[in-house]
User: Fold Restriction endonuclease subunit S from Lachnoanaerobaculum gingivalis.
Amino acid sequence: MVNNNLEQQSVLLFKEWFTDFVNTSSNLIETQFGLIPDTFRLLKNGELQIVVTDYVANGSFASLKANVTLYQESNYAYFIRNTDLKSGSFDVFVDEHSYKFLSKSTLYGGEIIISNVGDVGSVFLCPKLKKPMTLGNNIIMLRSEQDNLKYYLYIWFKWLYGQSLIQGIKGGSAQPKFNKTDFKSLPIFLPPDDLLEQFHQTVKPMFELIEKNNEENQGLRVIRDTLLPKLMSGEIDVSDIDL
Assistant:
């Protein structure tokens, strides 16, 4: 609830600044997004200072099958999937060889992750976990080379214009999906650098608090998952505890 409130505050701020344009007195010009200030830049995603990659960027399906092994018990690195990001519980791992083979999609935390197969358009900020991390399948990762782009892009793709644009490029009869090439061709607009930096510095404390709360929740899950089996098996005796 707290995290949701914090994120909604950042979304409302985004709308004020970049939909209602309350922080600019520039002239408005007509674009495919409607009227926007003439100081804003119209670009394509592929022109942004970001890295866009995915699981299959690491090799052919045959080489991935031969070199990547998934584990249900703890191992060298987390294998981050869409379902894990939704639940906040990370239970699939890869060994060190697999992790090194998947070097083109290594995660460090803070990347924007978007589902591009099945549940198309789910958007997350990658958490920072206690082990190395690598990107799972059926999702793409965006890593900004310009730090103040991260939260702007996250809100753009999750809550604003980016959602409808992503839905517009999905195809597939059996299972909805989109590819990286089409994604890179999607349009976007950016505010001037000073306004982008101002927005970044304003919402950054909100997202840092969200991340801190997520880390605490993850720690509690680990404690729960460690203690519960021992309680159930009787390995830990709590019969003498006076409640």
